[in-house]
Design brief:
There is one protein chain. By secondary structure, the protein is α/β, with parallel strands linked by helices. It has five helices and nine strands. A four-stranded parallel β-sheet has the order 1-2-3-7, sandwiched between helices. A three-stranded mixed β-sheet has the order 4-5-9, covered by helices on one side. A two-stranded antiparallel ribbon has the order 6-8. Helix 2 links the parallel strand 1 and strand 2. Helix 2 runs parallel beside helix 3. It is globular, with a radius of gyration of 18 Å. The model has no long low-confidence stretch (mean pLDDT 91).
Amino acid sequence: LPDSVELVYGDVSDKESLKIALVGTETLYLNLNTTNWDENASFQPEREGIINVVDVSKELGVNHIMQIVGIDSSHPEFATKGMEYKTNRIRIPAMEYLKKANINFTYFHCSVFLDSFPTFIQGENFGIIGNHQYPVYYTNTTDYARIIANPKGNKETYNKAFSVQGVEGIVFPEEAKRFVRVYDSKIQVAEYP
């Protein structure tokens, strides 16, 4: 990061640390991910953590909170047949909490990032779980970074949600095959139930 960036520490499970970290903040961008699917856990960064951030932001007069939320929170039908995105049970209550907090918000419903594809590789397999029937309009982190810079200070984006996707829809197994042909042709796409 450039020298002009000031790094501050704040723990989303500790409101007092957030009060110190967020003093003077006008716009806040949240990128908190659900790392376990236990909706009964007493603390989830993407639920209680965001609620804590919203409470402190309201107290400190933060004007705008932007948040990345998966495309699945606006399109639950993208889940594989017979499956529900468990992350939404955790994510959506905090999204609703922010909507009711009287703080301007902008949600980015992002599709799958192509940059994440190497994480699907285990050994010689690119693992796909489930029967993917809907085309995905993939994006990447570089394009996404340009997109999220636009809403800062832009009142036209307040209290709205935007889908962030690419221009070509391809079902996941086909895109995985394209990827491994370029990335490493020795890798095989493996589909699991």
